[in-house]
Amino acid sequence: MKAMILAALLLAGPAAAQDNALKNSAAWDDLRASVLGLEADVPIDPAVLDLEAPVRAYEAAIVPIRLTQTRDAPPIGAVTLVIDENPAPVAAEYTFGPAMAPLDFEFRVRVDSYSDVRAIADLGGGNRVMAGRFVKASGGCSAPAGKDMAAVAATMGQMRWRAGPQDGRQVGTLMIRHPNFSGLQRDQVTLLNIPAHFIDRLEVRQGEDLLFTLNAGISIGEDPVFRFAYEPNGQPIRVHARDTEGNVWDQEFAAGG
User: Fold this and answer.
1) DSSP string of the chain, one letter each residue
2) Which CATH number fits domain 2-253: 1.10.1040.10, 3.30.1360.120, 2.60.40.3880, 2.60.40.2470?
3) Per-residue pLDDT tens over the stretch 199-225
4) Pairwise pLDDT comparison (149 vs 82), residue with the higher score
5) Is pLDDT of 7 > 70?
């Protein structure tokens, strides 16, 4: 479990200086209309939503992303994460419950080549706002898996949770053991392609109240880690995860972590 703890610590660290503004490529122009159904570009307003990401990724398979809002920003109900140049550009679709406002949410993604990484937020009533950064990284979707297949089978679905107060809110870190194979990697022993096998659905609640859900593609990193601030209600944290092979894991953690 040392690797998971280290990953969480790395995720919690500050992002590099944010001088890597979006570049807006031809790929985005196509994705905006054909994939997201948006005719016009989405306004950028860091007072409503900001996205932090490193200028140059230390490791393309686990690029840290942080979504934040100012304290008085309007609540965000859903976010679509797009990595323009990835093989499957729509990396994740999140929904957020009221306890997550204002948003302070971190996770890790694979970036396959130099690309804009953008979050398109739904504010309700047809209003959207976008945030993003240009990240220099390559090979993240085909990077070798970090462990052998026996270790994968032995630990898949294991979870860890920790939480504690910070700046007047509760901050939780959820760690899940899963290889999240992208379908573009090779087994380092057999040199054969490893079929895609990843967590495609995640739901996190405190009691019955929703914290967040995730519908994911191949771009969420191996052994996913999620760190987020929320308003606690004193109820246990309940996690439901499902992967593309039909495996399901449910776990409950004490409210205090």
Assistant:
1) -HHHHHHHHHHHSPPPPS-------HHHHHHHHHTT--SSPPPB-TTT-EEE--SB-S-TTSEEEEEE--TTSPP--EEEEEETTSSS-EEEEEEE-GGGPSPEEEEEE---SSEEEEEEEEEETTEEEEEEEEEB---TTTPPPSS-HHHHHHHTT-EEEEEEEETTEEEEEEEE----B-SS-B-TTT-PBPPPB-EEEEEEEETTEEEEEEEE-TTBPSS-EEEEEE---SPPEEEEEEETTS-EEEEEE-TT-
2) 2.60.40.2470
3) 999 999 999 999 999 999 999 999 999
4) 82
5) no
